[in-house]
Amino acid sequence: MSNQEPATILLIDDHPMLRTGVKQLISMAPDITVVGEASNGEQGIELAESLDPDLILLDLNMPGMNGLETLDKLREKSLSGRIVVFSVSNHEEDVVTALKRGADGYLLKDMEPEDLLKALHQAAAGEMVLSEALTPVLAASLRANRATTERDVNQLTPRERDILKLIAQGLPNKMIARRLDITESTVKVHVKHMLKKMKLKSRVEAAGMGASGAHFLITVPSAVRRLTMRRTVRQALA
User: Which residues carry this modification: 4-aspartylphosphate (predicted)?
Assistant: First the structure.
């Protein structure tokens, strides 16, 4: 990012001390800058619309409009920025629900500062980010979804299956387009149709389905190993 403008980030969290701590941490990174902060979902949505940040760090448990409701509203706005949930909760229902509803990542608030900063860089670069402690949580969810996955994947065209496989491997649309020798816009159209057929809300869900499906070479254990904070692993659900 050194030759580019700093990535912009919006903080949405009802704890002012936490926001201050995160801002101080981010100030150590010259290629990321905090452009706004909000103490509740309503204010966060207004700032997101006016600032259009590259990244939104969203608390899950807030009074009034909670994090999931805020996430839904932000997704309805079709904002270009990526949204990463930042929470104390490591419960499977919270994690899986957030990802299904369109979050581009899920980070725990007890992670080490250097790991958080590294994750924010990855998120700003367009990758999926997940705390390493969530690996067993997602492993259980992947196993539970395996049977449903096989049925849903049968609805896809061969090209859509190819794209799903590459999504599960962590490839962004641009790289998928190069791999399949098609345009990026064509990839986006296929992804849109694929999500509709499989009744999914985001490519995050599609990545999980692809990683757990028996139609692909990616086994559940190998997919789960990707869901750690290491660079080669963080892209599993991107």
Answer: 59
